[in-house]
């Protein structure tokens, strides 16, 4: 039985084991901790989670947590929707060892409980009941999905929390330095192109009952926040939600935009919703369509990822400006 503990309560499995009776079999003593001094992390709930040592066998239920682990050189034992992760996240690829634990919204509690994990990383979007169920067998830390008030700060706060729990603080510092260097590189490239102050609008979209619904990444969204760091200006006029900075629009809503660089994400696996607008009269009249400033960015750049994914967006924006 693992000796990892969490300060918010004893493992149910440990309690049942301690209560066992009526057997003559000799019970083996707990193995020694996996190594290292105890580690305490204060997660996004404000709860202290204490581990006997740096976590080695870790699972993550959301893709930002998976990316953080891989970028910290900790290959997760398990992850949600591995097929989807490989389709959307190229910055921090998985090897063939992680176990798939189901969907991001409803991971398999039974599978998680069977993997002898030291830690499960979840986001604040996971149902509290599911978190409580996981905690009956395994310590959990909760990271924020994002924060529209400081998306880059939130990204690094989550990365640092996982780094503390896994004993990879040095790698986290390297990732921060690499991100800062990428921002400086992108800023210099934008200046050289004479594009400092250029306006952009970034989005993705989906088709519902034949209608294209557009999801603007407004002020407070992570990707635009990164692109503004290199000297560009996010031009979406509407407000987004408080967590991710995501808005809602249709093709008529695009008429509020000036002649911007209109960049968007799609995926060949699911199709390109913007292709559905090719014959739409409103779309055809938009200034950025007329001027040829509509560009689909490369596939598999995760919009809600970590510093490695955000570095990819810096490169993608510079490449788009050069075209």
UniProtKB/TrEMBL annotation:
Q: Does the keyword Coiled coil apply?
A: no
Q: Identify the keywords attached in UniProt to this record, alphabetized.
A: Signal, Transport
Question: By its UniProt entry, which Pfam families does this protein fall under?
Answer: Peripla_BP_2 (PF01497)
Q: Which GO terms describe its cellular component?
A: outer membrane-bounded periplasmic space
Gene Ontology biological-process entries = iron coordination entity transport
Q: Which SUPFAM superfamilies does the entry mention?
A: Helical backbone' metal receptor
Instruction: Quote the subcellular location field of this record.
Output: Cell envelope
Q: Which InterPro entries match?
A: ABC_transptr_periplasmic_BD, Bact_iron-sidero_bind
| Gene3D superfamilies in the cross-refs | Nitrogenase molybdenum iron protein domain
Q: Does Signal appear among the keywords? A: yes
Family of this protein: Belongs to the bacterial solute-binding protein 8 family.
* Name the record gives this protein: Iron(3+)-hydroxamate-binding protein FhuD
Please spell out the taxonomic lineage of the organism that makes this protein.
Bacteria, Bacillati, Actinomycetota, Actinomycetes, Pseudonocardiales
Tell me the gene name: fhuD
């Amino acid at each position: 039985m693992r000796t990892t503990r969490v300060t918010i309560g004893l493992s149910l499995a440990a309690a049942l084991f301690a209560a066992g009776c009526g057997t003559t079999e000799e019970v083996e003593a707990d193995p020694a901790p996996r190594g290292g001094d105890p580690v305490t992390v204060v997660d996004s709930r404000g709860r202290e989670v204490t581990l006997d040592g740096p976590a080695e066998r870790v699972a993550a239920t959301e893709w930002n947590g998976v990316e953080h682990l891989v970028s910290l050189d900790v290959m997760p034992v398990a992850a949600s929707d591995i097929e989807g992760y490989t389709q959307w996240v190229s910055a921090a690829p998985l090897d063939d060892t992680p176990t798939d634990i189901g969907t991001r919204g409803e991971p398999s509690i039974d599978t998680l409980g069977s993997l002898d994990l030291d830690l499960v990383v979840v986001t604040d979007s996971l149902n509290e009941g599911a978190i409580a169920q996981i905690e009956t067998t395994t310590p959990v830390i909760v990271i924020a999905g994002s924060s529209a008030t400081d998306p880059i700060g939130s990204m690094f706060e989550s990365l640092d929390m996982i780094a503390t729990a896994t004993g990879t603080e040095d790698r986290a510092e390297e990732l921060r330095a690499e991100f800062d260097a990428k921002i400086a590189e992108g800023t210099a490239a934008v200046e050289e192109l004479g594009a400092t102050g250029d306006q952009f609008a970034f989005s993705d979209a989906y088709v519902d009952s034949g209608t294209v619904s557009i999801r603007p990444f407004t002020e407070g969204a992570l990707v635009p926040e990164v692109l503004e760091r290199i000297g560009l200006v996010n031009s979406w006029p509407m407000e987004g939600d408080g967590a991710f900075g995501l808005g809602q629009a249709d093709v008529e809503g695009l008429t509020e935009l000036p002649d911007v660089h209109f960049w968007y994400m799609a995926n060949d696996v699911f199709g390109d919703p913007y292709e559905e607008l090719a014959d739409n009269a409103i779309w055809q009249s938009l200034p950025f369509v007329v001027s040829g400033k509509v560009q689909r960015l490369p596939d598999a750049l995760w919009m809600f990822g970590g510093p490695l994914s955000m570095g990819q967006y810096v490169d993608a924006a510079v490449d788009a400006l050069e075209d």
